[in-house]
Design goal:
The protein has about 375 residues and is α/β, with parallel strands linked by helices. It has two domains: about 190 residues, Rossmann fold (3-Layer(aba) Sandwich); about 170 residues, Rossmann fold (3-Layer(aba) Sandwich). The chain is built from 15 helices and 15 strands. It has a seven-stranded parallel beta sheet, sandwiched between helices. Helix 11 crosses helix 14. The longest helix is centred in the C-terminal third of the chain and has 15 residues. The radius of gyration is 21 Å and the shape is globular.
């Protein structure tokens, strides 16, 4: 049994899955965005992860002939030899990550009904759209998903999305969105709190990610300033288009801190430094930073537009607020910071909840989808 996997570029959340799969089935990963595709639009910088992403499995970088290369638009990935290279491997199954690229859709179209096609994506129905957009989207997506045999859904919101666009219950296989729980839970010795002058008894709220309007760090920053909380700090870690604006707005606040984009090896220490992790996104198909913070044993506050919220955040480990509703956010944040001991127990519940959202369960269910 041979499995061909189609993915844009090496991703820290997928590489461990490919490595585990390769221990159970012959596979080859075809990276379609090209070998030099490490500029991240959201972080607005080149990202070279400092953990191995190509170990333990067979892979090939396809030549990307697109004029404007990138995984942020449909025509950004064009591989003239994709069909030939995949056919040379002669797979029995195909697993495609995402369809909204020229090459990926071409691959789906070519191999439809030739070999079974598994599809993985994490889209949801959380974002409101106009009647016209919904009508067009319904036609397009129903057509696209007729090309696949099974969809590997990541959570409740993603499952609802696939059902909406024509897939049947029996075509859906739960493969939980996961991160390296062990790496983020293991104690680190990088004392970020001490480096920022934050006392052990102080509460630290963390935002980590892209400083862009969609992630909405401004809501968190403005609410934090307005609440004027005693013995409480805010740490924003990352980079992006809002960086200058955020730093300017926080300039006079000694309890608001910034750190630049941090690589994978230091991110466990970043999460472990905080007491509360906040993801205030206006739109987020999942939000794997939530998984990371939970693995580090932290309480969570997240907007209801994050796909992961309904699966991972419960009263025992955090709060879900209405996206864009500053009053609701302030009320729920105040409840969290009012009891430090409660935050610790919430963090323990986070660890317990996220323990089942792991790479092994994801791989087991992918193999079951193939065997079935």
């Amino acid at each position: 049994m041979k499995l061909a996997i189609i993915c844009t570029h090496p991703i820290q959340y997928y590489a461990p899955v490919f490595k585990l799969l390769a221990q159970n089935i012959e596979l080859k990963v075809f990276y379609t965005a090209g070998k030099h595709s490490n500029f991240d639009e959201g972080f607005n910088q080149v990202v070279n992860w400092d953990i191995p992403l190509l170990d333990g499995y067979q892979f090939e970088f396809l030549h990307n002939t697109a004029r404007q290369k990138g995984s942020h638009h449909f025509m950004g990935i064009k591989n003239l030899d994709a069909i030939d290279r995949i056919s040379d491997f002669a797979p029995d199954y195909l697993l495609v990550y995402g369809w909204a690229y020229f090459s990926h859709f071409k691959i789906l179209n070519h191999f439809k009904r030739k070999i079974p096609i598994l599809f993985r994506g994490d889209s949801t129905l959380l974002n409101k759209q106009s009647v016209i957009k919904r009508f067009v989207k319904d036609i397009v997506l129903r057509y696209v998903y007729r090309h696949i045999d099974k969809a590997l859904y990541v959570g409740i919101n993603n499952k609802a999305y696939f059902l909406k666009y024509g897939l049947k219950e029996e075509q859906l296989i739960f493969t939980p969105h996961a991160i390296d729980n062990k790496r983020f839970s293991e104690k680190t010795y990088h004392d970020i709190r001490a480096s920022l002058g934050i006392q052990d008894h102080d509460i630290l709220i963390l935002f980590a990610g892209k400083f862009d309007p969609v992630k909405n760090p401004e809501l968190l920053l403005n609410a934090f300033k307005a609440l004027n909380l005693l013995n409480t700090h805010l740490l924003c870690v990352g980079s992006g288009v809002l960086e200058t604006k955020l730093k300017s707005a926080a300039a006079s606040f000694k309890n608001i801190h910034f750190m630049p984009f941090q690589n994978q090896s230091t991110m466990p220490a970043v999460y472990q430094a905080c007491d509360i992790f906040c993801l205030p996104s206006k739109s987020d198909s999942w939000g794997l930073a939530i998984n990371e913070a939970m693995a580090a044993g932290k309480a969570i506050i997240v907007s209801d537009k994050a796909g992961a919220a309904v699966d991972l955040v419960h009263p025992v480990n955090g709060k879900i607020f209405q996206s864009g509703n500053t009053a609701d956010f302030k009320e729920k944040l105040l409840k969290l910071v009012s009891d430090r001991d409660r935050l610790r127990s919430m963090g323990e519940f986070s660890k317990e909840i996220i323990s089942m959202w792991n790479f092994k369960n994801q791989v087991k269910n992918i193999l079951n989808a193939i065997a079935g």
